[in-house]
Amino acid sequence: MGFADVAVIGVGLAMDACAVAISNGLKMKKFNIRQAFGAALMFALFQAVMPVIGWAVGIQFSGYIDKFDHWIAFALLVFLGGKMIVDSFGKEKEDTAGGLGIKRLLVQAVATSIDALAVGVTFSFSDVNIWISVLIIGAITLVLSLLGAYCGFRIGTKLKSKAEIFGGIVLIIIGIKILLEGLGVIPF
Fold first, then answer.
1. Domain for residue 25, yes or no?
2. HSE (CB half, 13 Å, CA atoms) of 166?
3. Which end of the chain is least crowded, N or C, by CB within 10 Å?
4. Domain containing 55 — which CATH number?
5. Tens of pLDDT along 16-69?
6. CB–CB of 23/185 below 8 Å?
7. Domain range holding 97?
8. What is the pLDDT of residues 165-178, one digit of tens each?
Protein backbone atom coordinates (compact mmCIF):
# COMPACT_ATOMS: atom_id res chain seq x y z
CA MET A 1 0.00 0.00 0.00
CA GLY A 2 1.51 3.29 -1.09
CA PHE A 3 1.19 6.75 0.36
CA ALA A 4 -1.41 7.70 -2.27
CA ASP A 5 -3.56 4.86 -0.92
CA VAL A 6 -3.01 6.10 2.62
CA ALA A 7 -4.00 9.62 1.57
CA VAL A 8 -7.20 8.29 -0.01
CA ILE A 9 -7.93 6.28 3.14
CA GLY A 10 -7.21 9.44 5.15
CA VAL A 11 -9.83 11.33 3.16
CA GLY A 12 -12.32 8.52 3.70
CA LEU A 13 -11.64 8.42 7.43
CA ALA A 14 -11.83 12.19 7.74
CA MET A 15 -15.37 12.34 6.32
CA ASP A 16 -17.03 11.51 9.66
CA ALA A 17 -14.98 14.17 11.43
CA CYS A 18 -15.70 16.59 8.58
CA ALA A 19 -19.44 15.90 8.86
CA VAL A 20 -19.37 16.55 12.60
CA ALA A 21 -17.30 19.69 12.01
CA ILE A 22 -19.94 20.86 9.53
CA SER A 23 -22.57 20.32 12.23
CA ASN A 24 -20.43 22.23 14.70
CA GLY A 25 -20.01 25.06 12.20
CA LEU A 26 -23.77 25.23 11.71
CA LYS A 27 -24.16 26.17 15.35
CA MET A 28 -21.70 29.06 15.21
CA LYS A 29 -23.38 32.45 15.12
CA LYS A 30 -20.02 33.92 14.16
CA PHE A 31 -17.15 31.85 12.77
CA ASN A 32 -14.67 31.27 15.59
CA ILE A 33 -11.36 30.12 14.05
CA ARG A 34 -9.87 29.27 17.44
CA GLN A 35 -12.79 27.03 18.37
CA ALA A 36 -12.88 25.44 14.89
CA PHE A 37 -9.11 24.80 14.93
CA GLY A 38 -9.27 23.29 18.43
CA ALA A 39 -12.01 20.89 17.37
CA ALA A 40 -10.18 20.02 14.12
CA LEU A 41 -6.97 19.39 16.06
CA MET A 42 -8.73 17.06 18.49
CA PHE A 43 -10.32 15.15 15.59
CA ALA A 44 -6.93 14.91 13.87
CA LEU A 45 -5.19 13.62 17.00
CA PHE A 46 -7.73 10.86 17.50
CA GLN A 47 -7.72 9.94 13.81
CA ALA A 48 -3.92 9.61 14.07
CA VAL A 49 -3.76 7.72 17.38
CA MET A 50 -6.48 5.14 16.67
CA PRO A 51 -4.72 3.56 13.66
CA VAL A 52 -1.56 3.14 15.76
CA ILE A 53 -3.56 1.25 18.38
CA GLY A 54 -5.20 -0.93 15.71
CA TRP A 55 -1.84 -1.50 14.01
CA ALA A 56 -0.22 -2.58 17.30
CA VAL A 57 -3.02 -5.06 17.97
CA GLY A 58 -2.91 -6.34 14.39
CA ILE A 59 0.88 -6.86 14.50
CA GLN A 60 0.40 -9.25 17.43
CA PHE A 61 -1.79 -11.51 15.29
CA SER A 62 -0.39 -10.95 11.79
CA GLY A 63 1.72 -14.12 11.81
CA TYR A 64 -1.36 -16.25 12.33
CA ILE A 65 -3.50 -14.73 9.61
CA ASP A 66 -1.15 -13.83 6.75
CA LYS A 67 -3.12 -16.00 4.32
CA PHE A 68 -6.38 -14.21 5.13
CA ASP A 69 -5.24 -10.65 5.85
CA HIS A 70 -6.57 -9.22 2.59
CA TRP A 71 -9.99 -10.72 3.32
CA ILE A 72 -9.97 -9.20 6.81
CA ALA A 73 -8.94 -5.78 5.49
CA PHE A 74 -11.59 -6.05 2.77
CA ALA A 75 -14.33 -7.03 5.24
CA LEU A 76 -13.43 -4.28 7.72
CA LEU A 77 -13.23 -1.52 5.11
CA VAL A 78 -16.42 -2.60 3.31
CA PHE A 79 -18.24 -2.84 6.63
CA LEU A 80 -17.03 0.59 7.75
CA GLY A 81 -17.75 2.16 4.37
CA GLY A 82 -21.20 0.60 4.26
CA LYS A 83 -21.91 1.76 7.79
CA MET A 84 -20.91 5.31 6.88
CA ILE A 85 -23.24 5.27 3.88
CA VAL A 86 -26.15 3.83 5.87
CA ASP A 87 -25.53 6.28 8.73
CA SER A 88 -25.64 9.19 6.28
CA PHE A 89 -29.33 8.45 5.72
CA GLY A 90 -30.10 8.18 9.44
CA LYS A 91 -30.60 10.66 12.21
CA GLU A 92 -28.78 13.93 12.34
CA LYS A 93 -25.50 14.08 14.22
CA GLU A 94 -25.57 15.07 17.85
CA ASP A 95 -26.86 18.58 18.39
CA THR A 96 -24.03 20.91 19.28
CA ALA A 97 -26.09 23.90 20.33
CA GLY A 98 -24.78 23.55 23.87
CA GLY A 99 -21.35 24.75 22.76
CA LEU A 100 -18.17 22.90 21.99
CA GLY A 101 -16.85 22.07 25.43
CA ILE A 102 -13.95 19.69 25.89
CA LYS A 103 -16.24 16.80 26.94
CA ARG A 104 -18.42 17.20 23.86
CA LEU A 105 -15.38 17.42 21.57
CA LEU A 106 -13.83 14.36 23.22
CA VAL A 107 -16.99 12.32 22.61
CA GLN A 108 -17.14 13.54 19.01
CA ALA A 109 -13.45 12.79 18.43
CA VAL A 110 -13.73 9.25 19.80
CA ALA A 111 -16.96 8.55 17.92
CA THR A 112 -15.54 9.73 14.60
CA SER A 113 -12.27 7.81 14.95
CA ILE A 114 -13.47 4.29 15.77
CA ASP A 115 -13.24 3.36 12.10
CA ALA A 116 -9.59 4.51 12.12
CA LEU A 117 -8.90 1.81 14.73
CA ALA A 118 -10.07 -0.87 12.31
CA VAL A 119 -8.06 0.69 9.49
CA GLY A 120 -5.00 0.48 11.74
CA VAL A 121 -5.56 -3.27 11.96
CA THR A 122 -5.52 -3.42 8.16
CA PHE A 123 -2.26 -1.45 8.15
CA SER A 124 -0.64 -4.24 10.17
CA PHE A 125 -1.22 -6.56 7.22
CA SER A 126 0.22 -4.12 4.70
CA ASP A 127 3.70 -2.92 3.89
CA VAL A 128 3.08 0.61 5.13
CA ASN A 129 5.07 2.98 7.33
CA ILE A 130 2.62 3.48 10.19
CA TRP A 131 4.19 6.72 11.42
CA ILE A 132 4.11 8.51 8.09
CA SER A 133 0.64 7.09 7.48
CA VAL A 134 -0.79 8.50 10.71
CA LEU A 135 0.81 11.87 10.01
CA ILE A 136 -0.90 11.91 6.61
CA ILE A 137 -4.24 10.83 8.11
CA GLY A 138 -3.98 13.38 10.92
CA ALA A 139 -3.06 16.22 8.56
CA ILE A 140 -5.90 15.40 6.18
CA THR A 141 -8.37 15.21 9.07
CA LEU A 142 -7.16 18.53 10.45
CA VAL A 143 -7.58 20.33 7.13
CA LEU A 144 -10.92 18.74 6.21
CA SER A 145 -12.36 19.29 9.70
CA LEU A 146 -11.36 22.93 9.65
CA LEU A 147 -12.84 23.35 6.18
CA GLY A 148 -15.93 21.46 7.32
CA ALA A 149 -16.50 23.85 10.22
CA TYR A 150 -16.18 26.81 7.89
CA CYS A 151 -18.46 25.24 5.27
CA GLY A 152 -21.01 24.42 7.96
CA PHE A 153 -20.94 28.01 9.08
CA ARG A 154 -21.23 29.30 5.50
CA ILE A 155 -23.54 26.98 3.62
CA GLY A 156 -25.44 24.79 6.04
CA THR A 157 -26.44 21.16 6.11
CA LYS A 158 -26.33 20.29 2.40
CA LEU A 159 -22.86 18.69 2.50
CA LYS A 160 -23.17 16.64 5.68
CA SER A 161 -24.69 13.40 4.37
CA LYS A 162 -22.86 13.69 1.04
CA ALA A 163 -19.52 13.82 2.87
CA GLU A 164 -20.33 10.62 4.74
CA ILE A 165 -21.50 8.88 1.55
CA PHE A 166 -18.27 9.90 -0.21
CA GLY A 167 -16.16 8.67 2.73
CA GLY A 168 -18.00 5.33 2.75
CA ILE A 169 -17.53 4.82 -0.97
CA VAL A 170 -13.82 5.59 -0.66
CA LEU A 171 -13.35 3.00 2.11
CA ILE A 172 -15.23 0.36 0.10
CA ILE A 173 -13.11 1.02 -3.00
CA ILE A 174 -9.88 0.75 -0.98
CA GLY A 175 -11.17 -2.51 0.57
CA ILE A 176 -11.86 -3.96 -2.88
CA LYS A 177 -8.41 -2.85 -4.09
CA ILE A 178 -6.71 -4.55 -1.10
CA LEU A 179 -8.68 -7.75 -1.73
CA LEU A 180 -7.79 -7.79 -5.44
CA GLU A 181 -4.12 -7.20 -4.61
CA GLY A 182 -4.19 -10.02 -2.03
CA LEU A 183 -5.76 -12.39 -4.53
CA GLY A 184 -3.14 -11.43 -7.12
CA VAL A 185 -5.73 -10.00 -9.52
CA ILE A 186 -3.99 -6.63 -9.65
CA PRO A 187 -0.22 -6.52 -9.17
CA PHE A 188 0.22 -3.38 -7.05
1. yes
2. 14
3. C
4. 1.20.1250
5. 788 778 777 877 778 888 888 999 999 999 999 999 998 998 888 766 766 776
6. no
7. 3-182
8. 776 777 687 778 77
